[in-house]
């Protein structure tokens, strides 16, 4: 059996590994147009800041693939002939099944020249080099990538200005009320929201709020699936795959190039490394003859920005019927511990559908809320869910308990009855 894998990111590299585990005799070929092997793209801002070197974030080198019997090819794929089942790169290679994991590229909705983006290792190294001779940078976009790049550049001593089109930062991760807390605690960076960029040229940015100038500009305005090799597949915003990461019987796709249905039945593009790796595992197993499928995706996200941990899962406030926010102690009051802000969202019938957290251990709390969403738990169940307690570890009623109680009271007041 011959398996071809196009792309060596989180999805492609994971697909190769699990295809090998599923079928020890398969002839597996992976194509990588960069040449680094598989590395952590989420760690690229740490390469820019100098906290890590580029070597540090390489998880599976080209030599590793060869050692485990996977044919690694540092080549650009020019064409996939799905009818003849051939991959056209430096030469033509036949396959029996294929995994497309071509990732995404930065979506730039305005005219731009001479700006940087951050999608791969070479981008990170280019930004790092630009920063070494600069005093001021402009970041367009206050999503996760934009904020992480801003923090990295600030740590190098640069003055940083962030321009964001929406009215709050991290608009696809946390609501404006949660973002305001984060915004109030970020020092030393100039952040402009509600700012529409018209044009970028070298270090000059023209916006509806005036013009800005720096030594260089980094554009972080979201991503667009790279689907150019797959126009014969079902493509909308991305390559449409089912829960088996399948396009048809011989074609699979995984990672940022794909479009899936999430837990709530909504179409979404994959933009998280966690989902990409899980898709890669499923696609690799199935391309090698297995029958694995994905769990529904609830989009669990987390980050550490300016020493503040944030996390979110599920839907945001505008897609929920009820919500409540509560600032709770991580320890009993007498222990004088840190606080965490929890926000919970619920549907009309009281089912938990989303959550956000800011503070120490935010990701651990969000993982619990994610489980509640998976299990379609009612607010009452989460409000009375038993948690561990010890004075030096956790309170009798933890942050999720008390926020759930607040949400339950809010729904009762609104409806005049229990839901």
Please give a structural write-up.
There is one protein chain. The chain has three domains: about 1-105 and about 225-285, FAD/NAD(P)-binding domain (3-Layer(bba) Sandwich); about 110-220, FAD/NAD(P)-binding domain (3-Layer(bba) Sandwich), CATH 3.50.50; about 310-415, 2-Layer Sandwich (Enolase-like, domain 1), CATH 3.30.390.30. It is built from ten helices and 29 strands. It has helices at about 10-20, 45-50, 60-65, 120-130, 145-155, 175-185, 275-285, 360-375, 380-385, 400-415; strands at about 1-5, 25-30, 40, 60, 70-75, 80, 85-90, 90-95, 95-100, 105, 110-115, 115, 135-140, 160-165, 190, 195-200, 205, 210-215, 215-220, 225, 240, 250-255, 260, 265-270, 300-305, 310-315, 320-330, 340-345, 350-360. The radius of gyration is 23 Å and the shape is globular. Helix 1 (about 10-20) packs parallel to helix 7 (about 275-285). Helices cover about 25% and strands about 30% of the residues. With about 425 residues, it is an alpha/beta fold. The strands form eight sheets. Strands 5-2-1-9-22 form a five-stranded parallel β-sheet. A five-stranded parallel β-sheet has the order 12-19-13-14-15, with helices on one face. A five-stranded antiparallel β-sheet has the order 25-26-29-28-27, with helices on both faces. The mean pLDDT is about 95.
